[in-house]
Design brief:
mainly alpha
């Protein structure tokens, strides 16, 4: 999954608004960082969370984005 690829397809503001509505606040922060190009490991280190948490949220975001595209 490459966040920048998704941003090429859809307007960034509407995509972020969609994610903000469908994710919890802390999940949204993780998702936004992923879209900005951070790796899951970088996200976990910067936010001081378990890497599994970052991977879980990114997976959840992928599913949301697939439903957004459809």
């Amino acid at each position: 999954f490459q966040g920048e690829t998704i941003l090429k397809w859809y307007h960034k503001e509407s995509l972020l608004e969609y994610l903000n509505k469908n994710l919890k606040e802390n999940e949204y922060i993780i998702a936004k960082k992923k879209i900005e190009g951070y790796t899951q490991m970088e996200i976990s280190q910067e936010l001081m969370i378990q890497p599994k948490r970052a991977y879980y949220v990114c997976d959840k975001m992928k599913k949301l984005l697939l439903s957004y595209i459809d």
